[in-house]
Amino acid sequence: MKEFTIGPNDAGQRLDRWLAKAVPLLPAPLAQKYIRLKRVKRNGKGSRRDTHLEQGDVLQLYINDEFFDAPTPDNAFLRVDQPRLTILYEDEHLLLLDKRPGMVVHSDDKEQVNTLITHVQAYLYQKKEWSPRWENAFAPALCNRIDRNTGGIVIAAKTAAALRVMNQKIRDRELQKLYLCVIHGEICPREGELRGYILKDESKAQVRVFDRPVPGGKTAVTVYRTLDARDGLSLVECDLITGRTHQIRAQFAAAGHPLLGDGKYGRERDGRKFQALYSYKLRFDFTTDAGCLAHLNGREWTVGHVDFVEEYFSRR
């Protein structure tokens, strides 16, 4: 509990507006709830949110200490009142999440709060499974990342042990991640391999594809299989043998078959908000000891809904 005495500069303010300034990490819906539950007392009694404060009022706030911290990227999860997660699987060590296109996985210069990792941390904090005050260093973390405008399965580690194991398994390629995409035209052959070299252009946040080695370029290999083709579009499943930035988008564009809705590597947005690309299937194929995650070996998850598949390739 923290206690405040209202001085002349705070007198005249509404209770809820004063609370927003005094406890900047407390989400507005939660602040309103605490006022209703009388966890915010004015002179020992509950008050309405639109009560105007008077000089000398004593406010008692029965609110967790961490909400009084100064806002930083590390405590942005406290601003998330209702975590929005589509959970495919959860156990004591990890979460498998279906990230929807449009959400960024980590904070950037455009978004600090509404990110996948802040929603994960808020979810675990509100379940009382994790709090930064219980840990010296560890915080729930994402083991893989997906671009803002791409959807698909993201692995979140709830424990340090799971994070260590999963990071090693990803490095050793003991996971299979399959993508679905829609490309313009019909690629020939219908299944095969795209192989080249990708060079990143940091100034344009874009990559270029070359068919021979170039200084700074990295090998990029994508195995693909056409699942369906109609109306000038093809639904393709991709297996990333390497995991380079924008690999699928750039390689198919270089092959003359840009992804539907890809304004960066394609011709235009095609009326779509996001490119038609989704990391839709994940399988664990551990070949070495997996420790606390051994029970996942051989298991597979597939997302339940991919909008562009239903829009362009549902059976008519």
What does this structure look like?
With 316 residues, the protein is α+β, with helices and mostly antiparallel strands. It has 6 helices and 15 strands. Strands 5, 6, 7, 8, 9, 10, 11, 12, 13, 14 and 15 form an 11-stranded mixed sheet that branches. A hairpin with a 4-residue loop joins strand 10 (191-201) and strand 11. The longest helix has 12 residues, at 160-171. The radius of gyration is 25 Å and the shape is elongated. The protein starts with a strand and ends with a helix.
Separate helix tally: 6
Classify the secondary structure makeup into a structural class.
alpha+beta
Shape: elongated
Round the Cα radius of gyration to an integer and report it: 25 Å
Helix content: 10-25%
Strand content: 25-35%
N-to-C SSE series? EHHEEEEEHEEHEEEEEHEEH
Whole-number mean pLDDT: 92
| Low-confidence blocks of residues | none
How many strand elements?
15
- Report the major sheet: 11 strands, mixed
Distance between the termini: 62 Å
